[in-house]
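User: Predict structure, ligand magnesium ion.
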Amino acid sequence: MKDENATIWDTNPLSVRNLWVEYLGERGMVKAVRGVTFDLRPRESLAFIGESGCGKTTLGLALIRLLVKTARISQGEILYRRSGRETAVLKLKGREMRHFRWCECAMVFQSALNAFNPVLRIRDQMYDTIRAHWRMSQSEMRERALSLLRHVQLDPERVIDSYPHELSGGMRQRVLLAMSLLLDPQIIILDEPTTALDILTQRTILELLKSLKAEMGFSLMFISHDLSIAAELADRVATMYAGAIVELGLVYDIFYRPAHPYTLGLIRAVPTVTGDFQDLISIPGSPPDLIDLPTGCKFHIRCPYATDRCRQEEPTLEPYGPDHSVACFHVDQVRRDADAIWEGTGHVAAGEAA
Ligand SMILES: Nc1ncnc2c1ncn2[C@@H]1O[C@H](COP(=O)(O)OP(=O)(O)OP(=O)(O)O)[C@@H](O)[C@H]1O
Ligand SMILES: [Mg+2]
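Assistant: Predicted complex:
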């Protein structure tokens, strides 16, 4: 007999299908998110990596529909699932949308460290959030706020009565995490969760995220241009280039068996992810103008593998091995080269050692 609960449990909380987002800028239409499709799985941690301006934040904002007025979602579908119910996020209105934004899917913004109201104590900022969505007495709200501050390993009694400026950057980042968890969302989106922090504080926040996720069981979508953070925190990684996902796979495959030239380029440009590559090689050129995109593959101008086909036709994201998809006409060649580079470093990919 089919186990109903297992079915619900296994359902992906979020499915994004062919999502397109554009900004109407002074120079023209900025195509910031182009045909993005992915599923967020239960309790997984999915990282979005890619250079500055490739559309990561725009994608996150589109999911909770907090885009600026000059932006529009021109196409696509966002499906959210909880307790056996499916919701089309793009059809939600007013109250329902606000409920979704905090109670189902909460986002901690990229510039969030400055996003506190400077004249309100932490407790009032937390109570305001609870009050807007739940009916709770003052003492229940205090209990809830204290408990979450404790969860993010802060001294709750001290922090709850503080003003934001009395806290360090790392402490404020923890408070934001606590606030995002206040209404028990199933999905947390973190945009550059540790970028503004020093390396030791980054480490403690990463450890904290891992333990919170294990304990509370939410799905995490996080955006980072720091590959070492993705390598450490993610179960799966999506590489974005010029508004599109060009590779999506398990974290091991992305870092040790990449099949898109851009992912390979990103990894080779960073010493800290693996520590193994002897020669760091930067990716030549810069990302394309999202107003005036080149024809064909958007990476072809910078790509050492580019052929005439790449200049004319844009590859779509296609399955390449189990749980791995790539948008490139030269996947086999890239994979062979990635393997050869690893062999040169003495690393043997798992499953190939026999
Ligand atoms: N309000 C806006 N109006 C017009 N264009 C915008 C706006 N916000 C972002 N863009 C453009 O959309 C594209 C994607 O921006 P986005 O902020 O999503 O990138 P990102 O990947 O998050 O970059 P970063 O790593 O620097 O945070 C960029 O080309 C950017 O210039
Ligand atoms: Mg961003």
